[in-house]
Amino acid sequence: MRAVVLGAAAGGGFPQWNCRCRICALAWSKDPRAPWRTQSSLAVTSDGESWVVLNASPDLGSQIRGTPELWPRHERHSPIGAIILSSAEIDHVAGLLSLRERQPFDLIALAPVLTAVDANPIFAPVPARRIVATASEPIALPGGLTADLFPVPGKAPLYLEGGDPQLESEAGETAGVRISAGGRSLVYMPGCAVLTDAVRASAEQADALFFDGTLFSDDEMIRAGVGAKTGRRMGHMPITGECGSLSWLAQLPVSRKIYIHLNNTNPALVEGSPERIAIEAAGIEVAFDSMEVKL
Hints:
About 20% of the residues lie in helices and about 25% in strands. The protein is α/β, with parallel strands linked by helices. The chain has a single domain (about 1-155, about 170-295), classed as 4-Layer Sandwich (Metallo-beta-lactamase, Chain A), CATH 3.60.15.10. The strands form 2 sheets. The protein has a 7-stranded mixed sheet. It has a 7-stranded mixed sheet with strand order 7-8-9-10-11-12-13, with helices on one face. β5, α4 and β6 form a beta-alpha-beta unit. It is globular.
């Protein structure tokens, strides 16, 4: 099984188009320590022919063009046989609009996510066969892969959350995805509000884990002067601080542990920063566009 990171950044990408915070300023200046990243997405295959994409980021068109394995091989063709959504957030579904040219594929998600997508008529032209996943029940995918989706604590998409959102809902608005083949598996969780026993158990069974690395510290955006929300308010647990993910991941018996979905304010985006050094010292990697993981 082979996974390619199509995009490693959170919504807005890195650098974010309208931000010149301390971290984005390094990227805009083309500092080699802060390479640009597109919005979070992962492509997986077990046979090298058929691919499954996890989350359709707004950058999906350019991500496909930058990944030769995903190029068409004759007049009307795509190696992408399925797209799996972990949530209905804009940065996870907007890329579906780049796939509306009558190319069939399967669109797989838990019921609340597909309901949110289908409620918006802008997605009606997308010619995908909708498959509602049942939590933790395997789904056969193209190329010999198997997927199962499981709820993780999170919230409804920003455009549906209302005035008093439930921030740690486990009703299926946010999911983790396990992809398996040949007795090996990877787990993809780009959003997770809090660690639960179920999240821990799902991660411990993986050979590789891509986990929510949105913010290094919970109040990071506030201190940077670019936002008013904490990471937890946005449905993302921080890497450090009280109940952060770093200490847990450091002890996790998984061979590859990788932070993905990094916000543009996260100092771990900068190679050689104290924050990156702390993460790497704990045996954890930071995802970058075109990163490959082979299992």
